[in-house]
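We emphasize that the prediction below concerns an isolated chain of 188 residues; any contacts that depend on oligomerization or on bound cofactors are therefore not represented. The input was used exactly as deposited, without trimming of termini.
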Amino acid sequence: MKNMSKENKNNDEIEKNLDEDTDSSNDIQKELENNFAKNLFPMIEEYQEKLSICEDKLQRALADYQNLERRSQTEISQRVLDKTNQLMLSFIGIYEDFIRAKTALSQNDTDTEGLDGIMKNIEILLSENNIKPIDALGEIFDPKLHEAVSIVEDASLDEGTITKEVAKGYISSQNVIRPSKVIVSKKN
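Result of the prediction step, given as a token string:
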């Protein structure tokens, strides 16, 4: 029995030591958790700031990309329009050659039916590409649309009235691809 009581005493001491170790371990665990939590909040704030900066940079990059894409499309469209206008200007020269040929043949009472068909096709081509002639005769001179090649004195007309069109001008959408060459009136 003495042995048993010694054993019980030893077991009690072991349990007591274990309890003390567990309490101390729990205290250490709680302190570690508290320190971790205290350190976690500043880290969360730091990462939230970094995330905010990254989101801002991403939005700016997206806006820059969209602006670049829009600008590129505009530049491409403008280049296509410029090249189309150059090509149409060449067709206008051919068209005017046909007009002169028709005028010359008409003076000799020659049939111009074939030329009329060709001229009609060129007019359709110009129209499909939004190329329109500039009406100048009787209008007031506009340096954006007209090129004055001569001035004529005429007191009966307003200053700057176009009295004669020497060469037809053409406009594509809002761009003048060739100004009208005109003679302009001037008062004495």
